[in-house]
TrEMBL record:
GO terms for biological process: base-excision repair. Its EC number is 4.2.99.18. Keywords: DNA damage, DNA repair, DNA-binding, Glycosidase, Hydrolase, Lyase, Metal-binding, Multifunctional enzyme, Zinc, Zinc-finger. The keyword Membrane does not apply. GO terms for molecular function: class I DNA-(apurinic or apyrimidinic site) endonuclease activity; damaged DNA binding; oxidized pyrimidine nucleobase lesion DNA N-glycosylase activity; zinc ion binding. Residues 103-113 have a biased composition (Basic and acidic residues). InterPro entries: FPG_cat (IPR012319), FPG_N (IPR035937), H2TH_FPG (IPR015886), Ribosomal_uS13-like_H2TH (IPR010979), Znf_DNA_glyclase/AP_lyase (IPR000214), Znf_FPG/IleRS (IPR010663). SMART domains: Fapy_DNA_glyco, H2TH. Residues 100-119 are annotated as: Disordered. Coiled coil: none annotated. This is DNA-(apurinic or apyrimidinic site) lyase. Belongs to the FPG family. Residues 2-90 form the Formamidopyrimidine-DNA glycosylase catalytic domain.
DNA sequence: ACATTATGAACAC
DNA sequence: TGTTCCTAATGTG
């Protein structure tokens, strides 16, 4: 349930605690036994996210590709380095390295493991892959894709994706023009195009609904009828929301909250969004009940009054 | 105990 | 457009 921000956070965690260290790779569940055997004992040389794709090259030249699908998640155990601003904690010498268990999937959850627990922790449930160093364990469960690719195959995966604002951070302007071109060339509803990973990478059902509300745009508007400057504003807004999501580990899409409201919304999912999941509840702006409809087999939430 | 649901996407017609 | 796959949490009886 991971939209793009989750996968970027996972890539950063792996970069901190896995990359550069020889790994024991296994498949406790057994469904990735062959791939695990190929990677076992090797070293991951990088971990990167493009959209919702996680791509991890190894020193053997092979690339591990993981896609979490609807409900995949990684659990991290042991010396889990803190992510600050979605990246390495800075400053403090020897920031506390508490042994922790962190789940990065739907919502992020964390608990501090007590001392004296078994190490390594026994796999719980259906663990497709376990990546283990002496001090850190990463367990992957429920992915829709987990496979070993050649570098060419990995490049082909990236080539099929539209721009990701993080991946194209140095080139936001050109990337934005690409998105404008891809949206305005088509008669498909803009709500469907925002979810199309070949148009723009990393947006899922929550960010889709929220971006369109924030733009006060009717999701059913054909792409070619959306003015270029409106598409461009959607792209810029996506870049900002993604950066926030990577920093916070939470999808918080309301810009109307003060500091206290933000803090409350970070804790309570019912406060995080304008329209997503709020069927029948009053629009936070105009009070009209939020509607849900099917769009290309996914649920689309919108305010029929604000979004025109 | 069982059914339902989910932040996704590939595939078959 | 509908079916299928992967897993676990939540809701219902």
């Amino acid at each position: 349930m991971p939209e793009g921000h989750t996968v970027h956070r996972i890539a950063r965690q792996l970069a901190l605690d896995v990359v550069g260290r020889p790994l024991a790779v296994s498949s406790p569940q057994g469904r990735f036994a062959d791939g695990a055997a190929r990677l076992d004992g090797r070293t991951m040389t990088a971990a990167s996210a493009v959209g919702k794709q996680l791509l991890c090259p190894f020193d053997s030249g092979e690339v591990l590709r993981v896609h979490l699908g609807l409900y995949g998640a990684w659990d991290f155990h042991g010396d889990v380095s803190p992510l600050v601003d979605g990246d390495r904690a800075r400053g403090s010498l020897g920031a506390p390295r508490v042994r922790r268990a962190v789940r990065m999937g739907e919502d992020e959850s964390e608990r501090t493991a007590g001392d004296g627990l078994a190490w390594p922790p026994p796999p719980v449930g259906a663990v497709r892959v376990r990546l283990a160093t002496d001090a850190f364990v990463a367990d992957l469960r429920g992915p829709s894709a987990c496979e070993v690719l050649t570098p060419d195959e990995a490049a082909a995966v990236r080539d099929r994706l539209g721009p990701d604002p993080v991946d194209r951070a140095g080139d936001l302007d050109a990337a934005g023009r690409e998105v404008v071109d891809r949206v305005t060339a088509r008669g498909v509803p803009v709500g469907q195009l925002l979810m199309d990973q070949a148009v723009v990478a990393g947006i899922g059902n929550i960010y889709r609904a929220e971006l369109l509300f924030r733009a006060r745009l009717d999701p059913w508007t054909p792409g070619r009828r959306v003015p270029a400057e409106v598409v461009r504003a959607l792209w810029d807004d996506w870049a900002g929301l993604l950066a926030d999501g990577i920093r916070d580990g939470v999808m918080l899409t309301r810009e109307d909250l003060d500091a206290d409201g933000r803090a409350a919304a970070l804790r309570d999912r019912d406060l995080r969004h304008w329209v997503y999941g709020r069927t029948g509840l009053p629009c936070r702006v105009c009070g009209t009940p939020v509607v849900v409809e099917d769009m290309a087999a996914r649920k689309l939430y919108r305010c029929p009054t604000c979004q025109v």
